[in-house]
Design goal:
Number of helices: 3
Helix content: 10-25%
Shape: globular
Number of strands: 20
Strand content: 35-45%
CATH topology of the largest domain: Jelly Rolls
CATH class of the largest domain: Mainly Beta
Low-confidence stretches: 1-6, 216-237, 261-286
Structural class: alpha+beta
Distance between the termini: 30 Å
Number of domains: 2
Largest sheet: 18 strands, mixed
Mean pLDDT: 78
Length: 286
């Protein structure tokens, strides 16, 4: 089953929280913007982090993506997010990404895949980490996959568009590194071997998960406390904090109002100084 054609610029999710200053290149007009909490993501937008930044993304099918430092990905396709027959495609170009897929798929009809230069991963309900390494001096690129929970079906790069290609099944606690040599447009790659699968101790699995996971608190919104446009002031921040315990629903609504202003102002080229913003956080499940 091939992926369906994706509608242009369809919504695929939003940013939950950030560390440092990650960026996004919009597919719609190729402009580069800074990412902040609540920033909307559309199909084809490229999310990128540098050495000092990271981002947690919430997709519309409830999948959580933790994008580590020095990473880049985009999501060409996310169709029927509420269905077990949904189709999701994520392409990781470099760096490390942890994916927690929270909704089950119909194995014969739904598809959730992550593609890299060296491999394709078919995913069911699972939690796993993908790391893409830069090409070495011989032009060999490597992709490491570690499964925290669930199952991942690994295919060779040549079978990215063939879900029925030969699969190497990885279950919880397993790790595998796929290598491929890029020669022009061609990909040279040996068959994956089950004897090369590593079985990790629980301590090693926990270490991989911790290293790839961002904080478990969502930056629900950012409120201006200075004289910037749309400033809510410190009193509003204090009110939101007080209301979180008394009236969580109302506090979240109040914070989202500020979030909308933040997004509007942060997109404005006339207002790029984020030093006068503070974050109001609430716990968010991973």
């Amino acid at each position: 089953m091939l992926f369906m054609r994706a509608p242009a610029f369809a919504a695929v999710g939003q940013v939950l929280s950030v560390k440092g200053l990650p960026s996004i290149v919009l597919k719609s007009d190729a402009s580069r913007l800074g990412l902040g909490p609540g920033f909307p993501l559309n199909s084809g937008d490229q999310v990128a982090t540098d050495e000092q930044s990271a981002a947690k993304l919430h997709l519309i099918d409830e999948t959580i993506l933790d994008v580590s430092a020095s990473s880049s990905l985009f999501i060409p396709l996310l169709i029927a997010p509420d269905s077990r027959e949904r189709q999701v495609l994520i392409q990781v170009e470099r760096g490390k990404v942890r994916a927690k897929v929270n909704r089950e798929l119909e194995r014969s009809k739904g598809r959730f895949e992550i593609h890299t230069a060296a491999a394709a991963m078919g995913v069911e309900g699972t939690d796993f980490v993908v790391e893409v390494f830069p090409a070495d001096g011989d032009g060999v690129v490597r992709t490491s996959v570690t499964v925290i929970e669930g199952q991942v079906a690994l295919r060779q790069a040549k079978d990215r568009d063939n879900p029925d290609g030969v699969k190497l099944i990885l279950t919880a606690g397993m790790s595998y590194t796929a290598a491929a040599k890029i020669v022009g447009e061609a990909v040279e790659q040996d068959a994956f071997r089950s004897e090369d699968v590593k079985k990790l101790e629980q301590s090693a699995i926990d270490s991989v998960a911790r290293a790839a996971r961002l904080t478990n608190e969502t930056f629900l919104q950012a409120i201006s406390v200075g004289n910037g446009p749309g400033g809510f002031g410190l009193s509003t921040i204090q009110a939101v904090n007080r209301n979180l315990s008394k009236d969580p629903v109302g506090a979240i609504r109040q914070a989202k109002t500020g979030e909308a202003l933040f997004r509007k102002n942060f997109r404005d080229d006339q207002f790029n100084d984020r030093s006068n913003f503070v974050n109001v956080t609430i716990g968010f499940p991973q």
